[in-house]
Amino acid sequence: MPDVTDPVLDASAVLAVIFGEAGADRVAGHLPGARISAVNAAEAMTKLVDLGMPDETVDAIFDGLQLTILPFETAHARESARLRRVTRAAGLSLGDRACLAVARHLDAPAFTTDRAWSRLDGAEVGVTIELLR
Prior knowledge:
The structure is a single chain. By secondary structure, the chain is α/β, with parallel strands linked by helices. The chain has a single domain, classed as 5'-nuclease (Rossmann fold, 3-Layer(aba) Sandwich). Helices cover 52% and strands 11% of the residues. It has helices at residues 11-19, 24-28, 38-50, 55-65, 74-87, 94-106, 122-125, and strands at 8-9, 35-37, 68-70, 110-112, 129-131. The chain has a 5-stranded parallel beta sheet. Helix 7 (122-125) links the parallel strand 4 and strand 5. Helix 1 crosses helix 3 (38-50) and helix 5 (74-87) crosses helix 6 (94-106).
């Protein structure tokens, strides 16, 4: 069960844990229970599939992480669209905005390894952004 202080992860944060990259320890401190939107989970799973991992391996990895995968709801979709205005210059993707929208909705920090997020004003997007590296 997630704790209210658990972050919302973007795909890059999950991949950092899977591949033992810099910042993985900060995410691991919130496992099990760290939250991720279904959009970002699909993004991370797609990366593993693109690397040639069998479906069963991808499933086993995600089961082992014990993430709390959250549905992506209409309110999140609306917020993602609205965030486009303040994230466009930084080049954030739909997946990035999905993570921010869910984090904002939950009043939770968003964890990422994506340097593009450093160009955002956390107050303007309404989310505390934690760059993991």
